[in-house]
What does this fold into?
Amino acid sequence: MTTDHHAFPEYHQTATNFGSRMAELRRDPLVQRWVIISDKRGKRPSDFKRTPSSKEEDIKQGPCAFCPGFEEGTGPETFAVREGGEPNASDWRVRVIVNKFPAVSQDFPCGSAVGEGTVFGECRLPAFGSHEVVIETPNHDTPFVDLPVSHICDVLKAYQERMKVFRKDSRFKFCQVFKNRGNRAGASMTHSHSQILALPIITHNSEDELHGAKEYYDTNGERCIFCDIVAHETVSKIRIVDENEQFITLTPYAPRFPYEVWLIPKRHSSNYESVDKDELQSMAAILKLILQKMDVAFSQPPFNYVIQTAPLDPANWDLPYYHWYLRLVPHLVTLGGFELGSGCYINPVGPEKAAEFLRNIKLS
It folds into this structure.
């Protein structure tokens, strides 16, 4: 099958803009938060207008640019799980590609922050990094939650393999795995996929978590806060949703969003890359279970999940005070001005009630 670059405008329309402008990492000097300025992704004012729809998104029929047979039209393949054959062949189960219109790119130089001689100081970097797409299934109409546990395990393994590659490159300091489902959660393609973004800086959120975990460790007899949470919650049960031999899902004690769920390994590990084969299988099973429950409870809601793990540099390998986890947030409410202004979130559903509700969902 030949690839028609005009067949999938939602994927190809901004690819030609890449490289025409220099994207940047900029640091807010007030709160020291990094932001990616990526106007090369081609957003025009009209692109931000929303059209009313009776559903979260208008489901687009296949095939699309992520479907088998269109491999030559995507970004370069960096990893794949396939039955055999050559790279870019169509016999794959999971395929990782370079995002064709990325937020960051390895085409940009990697260097130190530069100053402007103004109030902003040394606050700018070229947007060096890596932005990849994980195409989770060759089947256009198969949602991630409907994949067999073994196939979900392949997706989780793909995340690991790419993170291991980035860890070997000293230019990368941080890696974020994330999945957006639904337009309101940030997805622009309906074909099931997730993304991996690696950066030369450690983000504000990651630094905050590391600082909080280290402070707890130092003031509580060198104990990991996540290990203590797992120990407490598996005894009290009031915020536990599900549990298997190696993982728990729970509603966190102070969630920012209703029905937010964390998936936490029972074994202490600060780095997602260190999870072994048996643990990945166990993780895939409990992840599928909580996603099934979300779909039953809220009729296939848009959601995000992110894998929170220690930074990539060698100093952050096997940290005794940090513990990787997966955070799942269904999009059920709209944030208002108070949350935006204060950073303090109003959650209309207590985590204990949310956990009880999700725990009691029965799957047919």
Notes: Residues 277-298 form the longest helix (22 residues).
